[in-house]
C-alpha cells in the first residue's frame, strides 16, 4: 500500500540537490526524504517502512541529545565557576579574619 506516489527519480533528484544547500537546508531535505521513505515501504503489503522510521527517529533524537549534552556541559562549567567563587570567598573571609585578629592584638 503506497500512500505517496513520489517516483524514485524525484527522490534521487532531492538527494542530488543536497550538496548545494546550506547545512540547515540539507538537514531539512534529509528529514523530508526520510519522512517520505517511511510511507514508501519496499513491500507493498506493509504500511510503513520500519527502517526509514528508525532513521527518522534517530534524526529527530540526535538534536535533542546534543542539546541535552550541551546543557549538561554548561551546568558543569557553572558548578566549577561556583566552586572557584566559593573558594575565593573563603580565602577572602580568612584574610579578613586574620586582619581583624591582628587589629584586635594591636
Q: What's the average pLDDT? A: 77
Work out the helicity level.
over 70%
- Going by helix content, strand content and strand pairing, the class is mainly alpha
Instruction: Tell me, briefly, the overall form.
Output: rod-shaped
Q: How many angstroms does the end-to-end distance come to?
A: 95 Å
- N-to-C series of helices and strands: HHH
| Assembly classification | single chain
| Count of DSSP H/I helices | 3
Rg from alpha-carbon coordinates: 29 Å
Q: Tell me how many strands there are.
A: 0
Tell me the strand percentage band: under 5%
How many strands, which pairing sense, and closed or not: the largest β-sheet?
none
Low-confidence stretches: none
Describe what you observe in this structure.
By secondary structure, the protein is mainly α. The protein is built from 3 helices and no strands. The chain is rod-shaped and about 95 Å long. The termini are far apart. The model has no long low-confidence stretch (mean pLDDT 77).
Produce a short descriptive summary.
The chain is mainly alpha-helical and 106 residues long.
Amino acid at each position: 500500500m503506497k500512500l505517496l506516489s513520489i517516483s524514485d527519480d524525484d527522490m534521487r533528484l532531492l538527494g542530488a540537490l543536497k550538496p548545494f544547500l546550506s547545512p540547515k537546508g540539507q538537514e531539512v531535505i534529509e528529514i523530508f526524504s526520510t519522512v517520505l521513505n517511511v510511507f514508501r515501504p519496499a513491500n507493498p503489503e506493509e504500511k510503513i517502512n520500519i527502517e526509514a522510521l528508525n532513521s527518522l527517529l534517530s534524526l529527530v533524537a540526535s538534536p535533542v541529545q546534543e542539546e541535552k549534552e550541551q546543557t549538561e556541559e554548561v551546568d558543569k562549567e557553572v558548578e566549577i565557576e561556583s566552586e572557584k567563587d566559593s573558594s575565593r570567598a573563603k580565602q577572602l573571609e580568612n584574610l579578613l579574619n586574620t586582619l581583624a585578629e591582628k587589629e584586635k592584638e594591636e
